[in-house]
Structure formats: C-alpha cells, structure tokens
Amino acid sequence: MKRVIRWIEESIHRGTEPVSGSSIWQLTSAPVISHDIYGEQIYASTDGNRIAFLRSFYPHNKMPELWVCDLITKKVAMVSEAVGGFASSPFLDSLYFVRPVGNEHCLARLNLKTLEQDDVFTFTDCPLPISETISPDERYFVGAFRLQGNLYGLYRIDLERGTWEIFHEKEDIFNPHLQFEPSEGCEILVQWNRGGIVDEDGNIIRSVGDEGATLYVVDRDGKNFRSLPIGKPHTEPITGHECWVGDTKQVLLTAVDGTVYLVALGEERAKAIAKNSGFNHISASADGRFFVVDDFRNGWLYLGSVETKRCMPICDSRASCGCPQYTHTHPYITPNNRYIIFNSDETGICQVYAATIPDGFLENLEAA
C-alpha cells in the first residue's frame, strides 16, 4: 500500500563548520519536537538518500507521527499519523513500527525507498514491545516486555507463520536496546541494567545499581547466553549506548569514563579504541569502518576510524544534552557515508540536522 505523500520544504542551511568544513543542514523547522532516537539502528535507506524521524507536539507522546526526509531534495513528508516501537537494520530498506488500528495495534513495515507500507502482524494477544529489533531476513520481530516486578521477557514474532512466543526471561532488562546482529541475524544483543529499579507504573526510579550496566548476547531462540567482557568487573560500567559494527560481529560501545570499546563475540577482553571523558552516544557506519560519537559535555560530534583509532571533531551540534532524550544528539552515519544525522535543540525545540562528511575526511581517518 502506498499512501499519498506530500513533500514539505522545511530545511535551512546553517552554514559551514570552520573546524572541519562540514556543511550543516537543519532538516526540520516546524515548531514541534522532531527527533531520530535511537541512532544505533540507523533509520535510513540503504542508499543513504532517505531517513526516518519522529514528530510530536508533546514531550512524552508515546505515539508520535512518523516522517521521512529526502536528503537529495531536503524535503520532508509524513507517512503515518501515530506510531511507536521502531526496528530497522543498516542493511535493510524496511522500517518496522507499531501503529494503532481501531481497538488493536498492528506491526507495519515501511520501505524507505518506495514509501510503500503494509501491516504484517496484529497484536491481538501479544504484548506491545518496550524495545524491539528485526532480523536481517525480516522473518523475526523481537520485542521486550515486563512479566512481573523486575522480571522481563523477550518474545519472538514469526512474521512468516504469524505466531509469537516468549523465548527468554531475565531480571533488570527493562531498557534492553535490543539489536539483531545485522549480517546473519543469529544473535541478539541485550543491555542489562543490573540493579535498576522500575516502579509499578513503569517509571525508572534507578537506572542501575552498584554494578552498573553491561551487555550480553543470546541466540534468537534464547539459548547460548554469553556475557560480554565490558562493564564491571572488566571495565567501567557502560553508558547504555552500543551497536553492532557492520557485518564484523563486533560491538562498539562507550563506558561512563568516556572510553570507546570494541569487542567481538568470544573475546575475553574488550579493546579501547578512543577516549574522551565526555564520549557517550555512539553509532557505527553500515560498512563497519567508521563511528560517530558525541561529547556529552558540550555537544560536539566526532568521527573515528575503527581500524586506525583516529578520531577527529566534525561539528558542534549545539545540543544542550539536557534531561529529555530529545535534547541528546543520538548521531548516526548514513549508509552512503555522506551525512551524519543528529538531533539538536539549538533553536529551543528539538530538530533533526544533517552534517555533510567533507571530501577526504574519512580517508584522513584511515591514513596510517
């Protein structure tokens, strides 16, 4: 199904960043909250020409509108009125989301290249997810939900059969940032907020206990639990921002001391590849060669090479990095390695921005 798409001109060119030569575009400018949380899954078409973002009139609207931006024309368009529960992958043109249909909710699929969308599953007796991910073959949609108290479960929807089942249970995974490994899709990365406290209404009272957060991996059937060697006792606790690195089966993450770590499945020790006491939100490029990370103290964005470990500033996001999530940058690199997409509340209202990656910048990062 393809709906009528009405493109709107909202973009504003904000000049050139003198430090790097990056051209800065404010892609959205309507007086409503627009953001691209979270950047770890890369809500973009595989050619890097279109991105998805959310738009709402209220700070904590659970069902915002879904919009897209064409980075060639810099125009934006609404594609769904009320949505939630996003899942994508750097190697997919599909974006999955939950939308209300009458008294029920459906899982919908949007093709970011063609803008065709269709409903693929109805949540008749299946719980709505608090975190979600889609397998690279687009057969399995995995969601997290609260079972009771601090016990949470992961369930798997088989989109081919139209069935669902709970396959994993764990305490304190109330903010799991679920991510299918994007190449083969056999493993699922899970964030574990050890010692966190959530009240009966779902409000996070304490995000972590003394141990801090860490990560683990399970197979998509819930078997083969593997804890990654990050967080205590291996490193400082993680910030809660992590992602798979292309098809390398490695995970990139930041720790609370600002260290960027790289760790592969089966390794006994994570590798430190960059450090800045403010490094926080992080995302890897689709080809696995680069990463973008913000300095949470001042909003500056940095680009780095996974191989050479070189890291250089690219632009000042001018984000306040305050308490609401939409004041955080949540940057990611488009799959064509042409733009960095990020949030900023520089104008007083969160908007979505794009910073071009100047010619030669990535080559300089990879230079020996």
Task: Provide an overview of this structure.
The protein has 368 residues and is mostly beta strands. Helix content is 2%, strand content 48%. The protein is built from one helix and 32 strands. It has one helix spanning 361-366; strands spanning 8-9, 12-16, 23-26, 33-35, 50-56, 65-70, 75-80, 84-87, 94-101, 104-111, 117-122, 131-134, 140-148, 151-158, 163-171, 179-180, 187-194, 197-198, 204-206, 212-219, 226-227, 238-244, 250-255, 259-264, 271-275, 279-284, 290-295, 300-305, 311-316, 332-333, 339-344, 351-356. A five-stranded antiparallel β-sheet has the order 1-7-6-5-4, with no helix packed on it. A five-stranded antiparallel β-sheet has the order 2-3-32-31-30, with no helix packed on it. Strand 13 (140-148) and strand 14 form a beta hairpin. The longest helix is centred in the C-terminal third of the chain and has 6 residues, at 361-366. The protein starts with 7 loop residues before the first strand and ends with a helix.
What structural class is derived from the secondary structure elements?
mainly beta
Q: What would you report as the Rg, rounded to the nearest angstrom?
A: 19 Å
Oligomer: single chain
SS elements, strand count: 32
Low-confidence segments: none
Distance between the termini: 49 Å
Number of helices: 1
Mean pLDDT: 95
The order of strands across the largest sheet is: 1-7-6-5-4
Helical amount: under 10%
Give the overall silhouette: globular
Quote the beta fraction: over 45%
Biggest sheet, in brief?
A: 5 strands, antiparallel
